[in-house]
Write a structure and sequence with these properties.
The radius of gyration is 12 Å and the shape is globular. Helix 1 packs across helix 2. It is mostly helical. The longest helix is centred in the C-terminal third of the chain and has 17 residues. 61% of the residues lie in helices and 0% in strands.
Length: 85
């Protein structure tokens, strides 16, 4: 079973590798705190999809303002995929 902390650590690692930001929390905001632009966000979404083997609905991306939004989305979608035969 996926645990919030494990997903957060993986998300943190992806952000560090793609964007170069070292320190984030669950409440870190992508635009306000990290000053990411649309290209940065697109690169992150691609990495999230690759690492977690999920497909991110692009309509949902606009609702992902904070790190915790991404962690919750990944957990929900990973669990849905695991339940499918």
């Amino acid at each position: 079973m996926i645990v919030d902390e494990q997903v957060f650590r993986n998300v943190e690692e992806i952000i560090r590798d793609v964007i170069g930001v070292e320190k984030i929390t669950m409440d870190t905001e992508f635009v306000r705190d990290l000053a990411l632009n649309s290209m940065d966000l697109a690169n992150l979404v691609c990495e999230f999809e690759n690492r977690f083997q999920i497909e991110v609905n692009l309509r949902e991306v606009k609702n992902m303002m904070q790190i915790k939004d991404v962690v919750e989305y990944i957990i929900e979608n990973k669990l849905i995929e695991e339940e499918q035969p």
